[in-house]
Amino acid sequence: MILLIVFMLIFPYNIQAKIGTFWHVTDLHYDVNYTTSGSRDKMCWNQATRSEDGAGSASPGQFGDYECDAPLSLVMSAVQAMANLHPKPDFVLWTGDDTAHVADSYFNTNKVVDIVGALTSILNQSFPTTPFFPILGNHDYYPKNQFPLGKSDLQTQVADLWRSWLTKIPYTSFQADGRYWADVQGTNVTIVALNTLLWYKSNDNTAFLPDSDPNGADPGKHFAWADEVLRKLSARKRRVYIIGHIPPGKFERYQQTKEGFHWFQPRYNDRFIQMIQNHSDVIEAQFFAHHHTDSFRLFFKDQHEHDPGSPVSYLLVAPAVTPWRSTLSPETGANNPAVRLISFDTVTGKLTEVSTYYLDLGNANTQGKADWKLLYNFTTAYGLSSVSPSSLYNLAKNLKTNTTMFERYYRANTVGLENSTACSSQCNLLHWCAITEVDYTRFSKCNTNGVTSSLWGATTTTSVLASAVLWLLLSS
Ligand SMILES: *[C@@H]1O[C@H](CO)[C@@H](O)[C@H](O)[C@H]1NC(C)=O
Ligand SMILES: *[C@@H]1O[C@H](CO)[C@@H](O)[C@H](O)[C@H]1NC(C)=O
Ligand SMILES: *[C@@H]1O[C@H](CO)[C@@H](O)[C@H](O)[C@H]1NC(C)=O
Ligand SMILES: *[C@@H]1O[C@H](CO)[C@@H](O)[C@H](O)[C@H]1NC(C)=O
Ligand SMILES: *[C@@H]1O[C@H](CO)[C@@H](O)[C@H](O)[C@H]1NC(C)=O
Ligand SMILES: *[C@@H]1O[C@H](CO)[C@@H](O)[C@H](O)[C@H]1NC(C)=O
Ligand SMILES: *[C@@H]1O[C@H](CO)[C@@H](O)[C@H](O)[C@H]1NC(C)=O
Ligand SMILES: [Zn+2]
Ligand SMILES: [Zn+2]
Q: How many angstroms does the Cα of residue 301 sit away from the middle of ligand 8?
């Protein structure tokens, strides 16, 4: 007894330290109209239901199709896999995009709310006593992308669906502005849920307002809110997990132009970077979605000086449940369905492991059985002793030079669908620039091999040749 007390006095933190876990599930894009008798180039809908595309080929799979969004069977199998693999997490992050990639004409506010409600009840049935920290994506508004400043019917209805997950202050805050912060009970972690939809270049409520308009400079005073919240959490010595749907910076898979492709309006991207720099001491990690791919981003003390000591924050982009092939450009591609389990130290908030589980969709459809498996463990695959801004900066540098390491990253990027033979040296540089240069101007300077649209055909030929050579080298 005395020994125990002495021990507790000497190692108070070690006694309390515990490894907690949470699931990050995102971009389910549940399509209520998916049918195996539908056609692939019509989102796997029945021909008669969706008429705007060309003639279709038949037989989409039982668990989904790379050309389409998630059928109910895929949604159910993902959530059941989470419950089977790890039924008692400390909490779940659910970062939005609940509806299918189809025209607004198929939706209205009630239909969007119904789909959010259906997913809410499926998730809640498998995790009835687990705290959830949910937010909405750009597809969870009618019309899509047009999330408004201030209250809306949709927010109120969704806040009511989520009432048991959002305690009083988060409920009010979410209902009013689509954002909130909340402590994770029994840990030093606080979730700060941002409403990134206000910073989206396709949101006509904010994108074109002049800087002189207060809602142009800082829509919904969102940066001012985050600044105040982060200051208070710092004073309370909390460890913050920032969560959001749309990430800052450039998309790591878009090869059409040297400037790349981004979602935030430039002025909001700049302020986002400043916000992270100003508060990096209290921010432990950031968890985002929307890309449907698996990647990460780094923030530096000074975006212009990337010395070894200067990475101050990192952001993990989680892969999607939907396998849907992006229509942005041919190379952006599809992915296998994924869900992600994260282990963390409840005292320091530091991540100890990021385990990505996936469904090989092709196999599942062939076998008529959904067998979710571990795709990879982050620290093991990348040989990291910890997950931190500096270890991820070293990893990024390794990805540039070490082909074995890059193969692992690139395979994970599409959740085991593509291998790095599909990625030329130009594509490799693009990933490096997207990961290390969240600033748009710096990205364009970094992405020196970037092509213009007119060169795309020629470069594709070159990269096919380069891939062929690499494939020969690797297979020998
Ligand atoms: C599903 O298809 C029906 C029939 O065409 C259509 O009326 C409805 O809007 C679609 N629903 C969704 C959510 O896409
Ligand atoms: C989840 O299920 C529990 C138990 O049935 C219920 O009390 C709670 O309201 C549900 N929460 C949500 C968000 O559906
Ligand atoms: C929070 O961290 C402090 C050390 O900074 C530790 O003493 C305390 O036990 C932690 N609280 C919880 C709930 O883990
Ligand atoms: C970051 O801090 C600087 C200096 O205090 C301030 O001018 C700027 O507005 C802050 N940026 C954000 C986004 O909070
Ligand atoms: C991967 O990490 C999980 C913790 O999330 C652990 O339980 C499992 O044993 C690890 N598996 C491998 C193959 O490293
Ligand atoms: C590249 O990474 C692999 C896998 O971590 C490692 O085994 C190998 O030693 C590395 N190669 C070099 C040249 O660093
Ligand atoms: C890489 O992908 C290509 C195209 O899908 C495939 O033909 C090849 O077998 C794959 N190589 C490896 C090593 O998996
Ligand atoms: Zn999405
Ligand atoms: Zn999205």
A: 30
